[in-house]
């Protein structure tokens, strides 16, 4: 503390410690938040085709086409320790080959300050709904669910499942490739 | 840079730039209090308007304020100079000091 530089060093170091303490306080103030929110999902159209997934092999696999309606209000999830939400729609189903199949069909990033109400009607999926075999046709139990990651300023990165899932079935016949 | 020193006028060169021990202690306490005060206020304000950036801006303001108040050696940090004992004058010291001074004088000449 006897020279200009040593005082500058001490003040800077002390300020950094205080910044760390404040950041930790910010984390603590939101550590026990409940990041869940109600979600309503529906499918408007579901059909299944049999096409080649060339990126994997030449065999013909089931490819599902669905359009979905999605309603969710994400506004309550935001607070001073949330920078953005990564929201994704997952289809989960069971086939003879695999007990659990999960396919991400659609996702969206909502940053803080953007419009946080999701209201989609007859939305197409963003990614292909390929099965790794022929398990989609006449599958009676495909469950759509919405989940999200909460990206904070400081702290943990929670993965949260929305309240509300929707179960639908695929038709028993392949659609012709034209439709 | 040393060659610049003689060019500086004596008035400026003789400005005191030190802090005494008590001043150093008070300077440290001053910036600690200021920064913690701004941190607490910033945390509350940031929580109220739910913007952590506001907390950081207020803390920055406290940092700058404490820099202005405690970095330069202001005269208020120089109010309790140490009372050094006066050098005891014995024959030995007289002799040595006289020899030293005479030596230095001789060098100068």
Largest interface: A-B, 20 and 28 residues
Query: How many helical elements of chain A?
Result: 1
Major sheet summary line of chain B? none
Oligomer: heterodimer
Number of helices of chain B: 4
Pick out the low-confidence regions of chain A: none
Mean pLDDT over the residues of chain B:
83
SSE sequence of chain A, one letter per element: HEEEEEEEE
Query: How many individual β-strands of chain B?
Result: 0
Q: Report the end-to-end length of chain B measured between terminal Cα atoms.
A: 26 Å
Per DSSP, what share of the residues of chain B sits in E-state strands of 2 or more residues?
Answer: under 5%
* Strand segment count of chain A: 8
Query: How would you sum up the global shape of chain B?
Result: elongated
The parts of chain B where pLDDT drops under 50 for at least 5 residues are: 101-109
Strand content of chain A: over 45%
What value does the Rg of chain B take, in angstroms? 24 Å
Q: Which sequence of SSEs, written as H and E, runs from N to C of chain B?
A: HHHH
Q: Provide the residue-averaged pLDDT of chain A.
A: 91
């Amino acid at each position: 503390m006897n020279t200009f530089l040593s005082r500058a060093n001490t003040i800077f170091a002390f300020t950094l410690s205080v910044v760390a303490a404040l950041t930790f306080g910010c984390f603590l103030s939101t550590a026990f938040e409940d990041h869940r929110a109600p979600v309503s999902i529906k499918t408007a159209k579901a059909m299944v085709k049999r096409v080649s997934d060339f990126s994997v092999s030449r065999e013909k696999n089931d490819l599902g086409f669905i359009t979905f309606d999605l309603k969710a209000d994400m506004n309550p999830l935001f607070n001073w320790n949330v920078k953005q939400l990564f929201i994704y729609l997952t289809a989960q189903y069971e086939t003879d080959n695999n007990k659990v199949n999960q396919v991400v069909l659609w996702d969206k990033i909502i940053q803080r300050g953007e419009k946080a109400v999701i209201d989609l009607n007859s939305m197409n999926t963003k990614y292909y709904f390929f099965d790794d075999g022929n398990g989609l046709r006449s599958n009676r139990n495909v469950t759509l669910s919405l989940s999200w990651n909460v990206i904070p300023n400081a702290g943990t990165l929670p993965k949260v499942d929305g309240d509300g899932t929707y179960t639908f079935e695929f038709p028993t016949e392949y659609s012709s490739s034209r439709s | 840079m040393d060659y610049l020193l003689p060019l500086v006028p004596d008035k400026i060169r003789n400005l005191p730039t030190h802090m005494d021990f008590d001043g150093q202690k008070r300077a440290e306490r001053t910036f600690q209090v200021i920064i913690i005060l701004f941190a607490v206020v910033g945390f509350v304000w940031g929580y109220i308007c739910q913007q952590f950036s506001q907390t950081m801006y207020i803390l920055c303001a406290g940092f700058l304020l404490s820099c202005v108040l405690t970095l330069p050696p202001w005269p208020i940090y120089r109010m309790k100079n140490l009372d050094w004992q006066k050098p005891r004058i014995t024959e030995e010291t007289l002799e040595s000091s006289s020899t030293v001074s005479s030596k230095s004088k001789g060098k100068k000449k």
